[in-house]
From TrEMBL:
<dbReference type="InterPro" id="IPR016866">
    <property type="entry name" value="UCP028069"/>
</dbReference>
<feature type="signal peptide">
    <location>
        <begin position="1"/>
        <end position="21"/>
    </location>
</feature>
<keyword id="KW-0732">Signal</keyword>
<dbReference type="Pfam" id="PF11932">
    <property type="entry name" value="DUF3450"/>
</dbReference>
<protein>
    <recommendedName>
        <fullName>DUF3450 domain-containing protein</fullName>
    </recommendedName>
</protein>
Length: 250
């Protein structure tokens, strides 16, 4: 009987320790659950924070795009307004072009008629070529497939060719009636001052007389200089001083 109390005490202590251990396990288990729940909550918080940060960046990016689009739209509006102004100006210009086109056709016809008269009254060099140029211009004016601008360009081009004749020297071969016979001769044109011919045998020369509208004979003393001038005009000799007959200006 003396050993009962210690055994009971030991049993009670063991039982108490078992209960405490069980409660401790429960506390630890609850702590783990709390930690797991806290970790899950923290992950959710981190995820929400990341999502908010991403959306904030997207918001800032969208704001920049909106600002850029506003500037772009403003610039486009200015361009559209300028284009509308240009369209108005073009419409007015088209009206003006129609008026100018109605006026320029009679002008070109007068220019061609003037050119034809000028060629007929001028020194008769390259007569066939120049007459054909005028005839081509007159035929061109009747064509509907050529724009007025192109017609005007060609008329001005013909005038420019005539202007260039006055400041160049040229040699060419053609037929001419000499002493009642048609002969092949070399022509020398010095601007519009002189039109001189020399027969191919080099024995006879003549010069165009602007008053009589005929060729008149030149003395044999001029033939050597005429030959030299012909070679210079054909670029067979270097430019040099020449002594040629020149009709005095009125």
């Amino acid at each position: 009987m003396k050993c009962v109390k210690p055994l009971l005490l030991a049993s009670a202590i063991a039982s108490s320790m078992f209960v405490q251990a069980d409660e401790l396990n429960k506390v630890l288990l609850s702590s783990d659950k709390i930690n797991q729940s806290a970790s899950a909550s923290q992950q959710k918080i981190d995820g929400i924070a990341d999502t908010m940060q991403t959306r904030l960046q997207q918001y800032k990016t969208l704001n920049k795009e909106i600002d850029g689009l506003a500037i772009y739209n403003n610039q486009l509006s200015k361009q559209v307004n300028n284009q509308l102004t240009e369209l108005d100006n073009l419409a007015k210009s088209m009206d003006d072009v129609a008026i100018i086109e109605r006026q320029i056709t009679p002008l070109m016809l007068r220019m061609i008629a003037g050119l034809e008269q000028f060629v007929a009254l001028d020194v008769p060099f390259l007569a066939d070529e120049r007459s054909q140029r005028v005839a081509t211009l007159k035929s061109m004016m009747d064509r509907a497939d050529i724009a007025s601008s192109e017609k005007f360009r060609r008329v001005l081009e013909a005038y420019q060719v005539e202007v260039d004749y006055g400041r160049t020297i040229e040699a060419y071969t053609s037929l001419l009636e000499v002493a009642g016979k048609e002969r092949e001769v070399d022509f020398l044109r010095v601007g519009r001052l002189d039109l001189i011919y020399l027969t191919r045998d080099g024995k006879q020369a003549g010069i165009w007389n602007k008053e009589t509208k005929q060729f008149q004979d030149l003395p044999d003393s001029n033939i050597s200089q005429i030959n030299k001038a012909l070679r210079i005009a054909r670029k067979q000799l270097a430019p040099d001083m020449l002594t040629l007959p020149v009709q005095a200006a009125e």
